[in-house]
Amino acid sequence: MDELTLSLRQKALREQAYVLLILILVISVITTIVNPRFVHPQNIINIFQQIAVLGIVASGVGMLLVSGHVDISVGTQVSLLGVIFAMLIQRILGLPEGNVALWRQTFAYPIAFACTLVVGFLVGLATGITVVKSRASSFIISLGFMSAYHGLALLVTGGASYMLFGRFETLGRGRVFHYLPISILFFLGVVVLSHVILKYFRYGRFLYAIGSNRRAAHVSGINTDRVVIQAYIVVGILNALAAIILISRVGSALATTGDTYALDALASVIVGGVSLSGGKGGALNIFLGVVLIGLIGNALIIMNVNPYARDLVIGLIIIAAVTLSQLSETRR
Amino acid sequence: MTQTLMAELGIAIAPERKVSDLSFVEKKLVSIAKAFARPVKLLILDEPTASLDKCGKDILFRIIGHHKAKGMSVIYISHNLKEVFEICDRVTILKDGKKVATHQVRDVTMDDVIREMIGSSQVTLYKREFHQALRRDEEILEILNYSKRGVIRDVSFKVKKGEIFGLAGLVGSGRTELVRMIFGLDPKDSGRLVYRGSDITPYNPYDAIHKSIGYLTEDRKFDGLLLSRPVTENISLASLARDRKFFLNLQEEIRFAVNLKQKLNIKTPSVSQLAMNLSGGNQQKVVLAKWLLTAAEILIFDEPTVGVDVGAKAEIYRMIEDLTRQGKIIILISSDNPELVALCDRVGVMRNGKLVVILEGNELTEENILRYSMGVCEGMEVQR
Question: For B80-104, how does the pLDDT look when each residue is reduced to its tens digit (9 = 90+)?
């Protein structure tokens, strides 16, 4: 009996991965039947290019959720960081017609990169410290930050949009060997990095420990506050990277460009099987969740469903995933 | 209406004051007054004088006496035998969920009651085999002047190398609060920990582990175990927190866990089993294994055998005894008095946040522990 429950528990997470894989296959097959263009290599690459940014954001959110904490401000974080990045480039390089000094050409991107990453770090630090020190629910605190970052982005732009004038397309649209989009490589790199952190780093172990039982982790000598703040900083930095890739792909930045990533990232990690209460899930769960959410968006478009239905579908999926995992947990 | 009720009960608290603004004693009095808001035939009071001062107690007893005269019945639950003998007519003794006896209070003495509380079966399941030659008087751990306003009052004691020092007392006497302060978990007003002459007072658990202290907490599910994680991760946690290594050594981790599983006879099909799937006794052994792996010199065990089956209990006792052979220092909190008598070299008894006595040798009996825990023999306090 003990033996049996053991194997069941151990399989549970892997099983969730199987379920996701099957789900992904089923959706793919149906979509292909409705519209064969779905399996065209170009579309597959499109899907991955579309989810690259989401995947980077979701990796941070997923690692944070392993520690039992949530950040729903990631969407407006990406917007704010994107606006800062685009604005810096426009300020330094000016409009495309004008002559640009050599130093400006040389340092524009490094400066914009560095500043965006630093702001990402600070944004994560601010959210993390507030969550930890207030001892309030991370959901509510990050809800406040969501609004605050949105307001900041509006203040920075004054409602205007910043154009790149096709000057910085490589990261978001560039391809290796004319085939593989660069952004996908970043996405996969971040997923692999998350896997290594969660599985082989002492830090990853601490995230699981805190998510499983914060008090026990504290008694065992873990500085739980510091570990959680670091997790929020990782989220902020990954958001900066995601924002740069996103802006590079889109070519311009608005104060709302990244807002939708909060819901999608959270949906991805929850559907992927990272427990909302923390202490469970891994990089594979995050990856499959991201693919599923990205796939649904693409499939709906390919099948000619009203694009406005997408949010409805994703909302229902979140509700279903959370309800199912809660039910299976209470049945124990 | 409140006004008349309060006046009738003789409680002087203005009715319009908010309960949150009242003092602790006043709150207690209000909750007592609440019981009288409707006509009462039977009043059940559960430890009503715990944390009530002399004045509050007098008010309460006056109210009880007054209403008793008017025909109300009272069931008075208390650990405080003096109060029982002061106010009750009859007394019923319960032990392990069973009724032992009911007496007219005037027919019995406090000693009779205490004897019945202990029970006649003095059989101890565990017999300690090994007592270190403690007479060397090598006192290497000193707990000095631990205090926390309203919780702990100036507690000091010394523990010898290879000694099991027990802490007895009723629930709420401050034992857990004291050791949490010693481990650096909770803030304190004062207190120093001195080991072999040097100050090792920990600032936080991390610091405590570095200073070779381990603390097995009172409630393993609350702050002992990572229930949703495997046995291996539970066992390695405190050692991981101590060592500043960047990467995990997964092979070594499993080897250590398997080792401790065998040593402590942890019954689980595999060390990758989730902690939540183990029985209470085996869960406790996992927490024990965690602290053994840190190789701590000073180990604090808070109720290590609560919710543990008899077999596992004996194994835990054997493990603790084994630790004394290695010269470790052990502080053992237990509410199981026979356990303390069987296992400890000396037992400090706490009451109301104070260490009232340290019992050893022939003095160390269940009866004495109970007497001092309940404060029955105030007059004969032994100097420590």
Answer: 788 888 889 999 988 777 888 899 9
CB contact under 8 A, B241 and A220: yes
Domain co-membership, B83 together with B155: no
- Is B27 found in the same domain as B89? yes
Is B215 within 8 Å of A219 when comparing Cβ atoms? yes
Q: Do B222 and A6 touch (CB under 8 A)?
A: no
Given pLDDT bands bounded at 50, 70 and 90, which one contains residue B55?
confident
Domain stop point among B52, B87, B118: B118
Residue B126 domain flag: no
pLDDT for the residue numbered B130:
61
State whether B71 and B165 are in the same domain: no
Whether residue A205 and residue B226 make contact (CB cut-off 8 A), yes or no, is no
Place of tokens 């009723």: B170
pLDDT in tens, B282-328: 999 999 999 999 999 999 999 998 888 877 888 899 899 989 888 89
Whether residues B174 and B249 share a domain: the answer is: yes
Provide the residue range defining the domain that includes B101.
2-118
DSSP B135: G
Which residues in A have their CB inside 8 Å of a CB on B? 2-3, 5-6, 9-10, 200-203, 205-206, 208-209, 212-213, 215-223, 275, 279-280
Which regions of chain A are under pLDDT 70?
Answer: 1-15, 330-332
- Partner-chain contact B228 A280, CB within 8 Å: yes
Please name each of the domains of chain A with its CATH number: 48-330 (1.10.3470)
| Chain B nearest CA to A216, separation (Å) | 4
Is A200 in contact with B245 (Cβ distance < 8 A)?
no
| Residue among A141, A133, A89, A126 at smallest CA distance from A111 | A89
Whether B17 and chain A come into contact, CB under 8 Å, resolves to no
Q: Give how far A279 is from chain B: nearest CA, Å.
A: 7
Cα distances (Å, whole numbers) of residue A46 to A50, A264, B112, B151: 6, 17, 86, 65
- Report if residue B254 sits inside a domain: yes
B13: Cβ contacts below 8 Å, ≥ 6 apart: B6, B22, B26, B29, B30
User: Residue A306: which residues within 8 A CB-CB, separation 6 or more?
Assistant: none
Residue matched to tokens 């004088």: B49
Assess if residue B124 is contained within a domain.
no
Q: SS in 3 state form for A208-274?
A: HHHHHCHHHHHHCCCCHHHHHHHHHHHHHHHHHHHHHHHHHHHCEECCCCCCCHHHHHHHHHHHHCC
Q: Complex ipTM, two decimals?
A: 0.87
Q: pLDDT value at position A13?
A: 60
C-alpha B263/C-alpha A124 separation (Å) is: 45
Q: What is the pLDDT of residues A115-167, one digit of tens each?
A: 999 999 999 999 999 999 999 999 999 999 999 999 999 999 888 888 887 77
Report how far residue A200's alpha carbon sits from residue A220's, in angstroms, rounded to the nearest whole number: 19
